[in-house]
Design brief:
Layout: E1 27-30, E2 35-38, H1 45-59, H2 77-94, H3 99-121, H4 132-153, H5 157-167, H6 197-203, H7 206-222, H8 225-241, H9 253-281, H10 298-303, H11 322-348, H12 356-381, H13 390-415, H14 421-455
Antiparallel strand pairs: 1-2
Protein name: Phosphatidylserine synthase
Pathway: Phospholipid metabolism; Lipid metabolism
Region (Disordered): 1-61
Length: 456
């Protein structure tokens, strides 16, 4: 099938299994028939007919559900409820535990119940692959995470650390301060184990792989290599600027420039770009049970559900308008803050870097961020979208809750640490120049160009 380039005037279509047309608040997905029903809008009837025609053409390749998978695309609310009741009865009446174990089991049961409700009752979002129910569960997990952050906001730092200790007895202990700039000597011939001991110690650190896979994933989410490079350089600048607050932000020059930017981040972005090109160039024909084509095994047809129907690059077009520009700037700020929160939260809650809680948080942000960024992009790019999508709203709310948590638990401590002049003044000058240049471009330069184009 031949893919058409999406323009700013056209409705944004489905990619990675997301519904064609408007956001989660504008379209409704019927998983049984794979038909998208557009909600009524204030646009003219001719535009609606054109949009519906395009949607029909884009959906004609996958408007039939695979016969072998039809069962999973039909509502089974009573069946799911019955199975859930059986599990609840079994675990609630047969397991004799201590008070601590009972509380843990009860909380897990509450979370499982809410996720079950999310799976069978919450509305569909933009994504439908591998299954709409999967993304409904992800939405439920995002809500649970947001509620957990709000709960911690009402606790003191000591009580929050005590809660972490109840979750895992290994937690609740102050973290040893670690700096990566204690010895920046690259070549160590005097060391008996290795001539590049400092380099090998840094390479064996868990953050190296986090950099590589993290930027691979972020490239797949943002689908714009230039924006990824801006984020990569921005975070390195933030690390240098906040090194006086967190000791582990102190890194050697070769760690910042070579390992982080030129090796790990660059390779991650490169792999992401190659993956995007592969997904864009690969021809998919997910028509379900094909009548003319050779029938594949049910395992193969099930695995197809984990591949995207369409995968288009995002055209952020940052200099096209004030809205686009501010949307991208806000997105860069939000993603950078999410990354910084990982370091501040583990420091304030005394969670060691290799602990599974840190890994779970990263995976959760990856899953809720996937549809969240898609909805945010549609909000920024499609003029007909006036409301932020559900997953994007959850992402923004969780980000704000994390920031408030860091301010409450560490604000008093961090405010006592003076900001070095070589950090404070460059930020003041840089922010001022960035603001003035942006204002000049959009308020003066771009307006002049628009006036000239109209007169010509």
């Amino acid at each position: 099938m031949t893919k058409k380039q999406t323009t700013k005037e056209e409705p944004l279509r489905e990619d990675s299994g997301c519904v064609v047309g408007g956001g989660a608040d504008q379209s409704e997905y019927n998983p049984t028939s794979n038909i998208v029903k557009k909600a009524s809008s204030s646009s003219s009837s001719s535009n609606r007919k054109t949009s519906n025609k395009k949607n029909k053409e884009q959906n004609e390749d996958y408007d039939e559900t695979d016969e072998a998978l039809t069962f999973f695309y039909k509502p089974h609310t009573l069946l799911v409820l019955g199975i859930a009741i059986i599990f609840v009865i079994y675990f609630a009446f047969t397991n004799e535990q201590s008070t601590r174990g009972s509380v843990k089991s009860g909380l897990l049961g509450v979370c499982a119940t809410f996720l079950l409700f999310s799976m069978v009752q919450m509305r569909d979002g933009l994504f439908v692959r591998p299954h709409p129910a999967f993304w409904r569960v992800i939405m439920g997990m995002g809500v649970i995470y947001l509620c957990a952050l709000v709960f911690l906001l009402f606790q003191s730092a000591d009580d929050a650390r005590l809660i972490m200790k109840h979750i895992d007895p290994k937690l609740g202990l102050p973290l040893p301060e670690r700096s990566y700039a204690d010895d920046c000597q690259l070549y160590t011939p005097e060391d008996p184990t290795s001539n590049f001991r400092n380099l090998m110690n840094t390479i064996n650190d868990e953050f190296i792989w986090a950099h590589f896979f993290g930027w691979w994933g972020k490239t797949l989410l943002l689908r714009d290599s230039i924006l990824c490079w801006v984020l990569s350089l921005t975070f390195e600048v933030l690390e240098l600027s906040l090194a006086h607050l967190l000791p582990n932000f102190h890194e050697c020059w070769w760690d910042h420039v070579i390992l982080d930017i030129l090796v790990c981040n660059a390779l991650g972005i490169l792999m992401g770009v190659l993956t995007i090109k592969y997904l864009k160039m690969k021809e998919y024909n997910w028509t379900g049970a094909e009548k003319k084509a050779e029938k594949r095994s049910i395992v193969f047809r099930a695995l197809k559900q984990f591949t995207p129907i369409y995968y288009d690059e995002y055209q952020w077009d940052i200099l096209s308008s004030w809205k686009r520009f501010l949307s991208v700037v806000v997105l860069v700020i939000m993603i950078s803050v999410i990354e910084l929160n990982a370091f501040f939260l583990k420091t304030l809650l005394w969670i060691p870097p290799p602990h599974p809680i840190n890994i779970w948080r990263l995976f959760l942000w990856c899953f809720i961020g996937t549809p969240g960024i898609r909805e945010y992009y549609q909000f920024a790019a499609d003029r007909s979208v006036k409301k932020l999508g559900t997953m994007a709203w959850i992402c923004v709310a969780s980000l704000i809750a994390e920031v408030l948590l860091c301010i409450k638990y560490g604000g008093a401590e961090f405010w006592q640490i003076p900001t070095p002049p070589f950090v404070k003044y460059p930020w003041i000058i840089g922010t001022t120049l960035f603001t003035l240049s942006s204002f000049y471009y959009f308020a003066i330069h771009k307006r002049r160009q628009t006036t000239k184009s109209k007169t010509n």
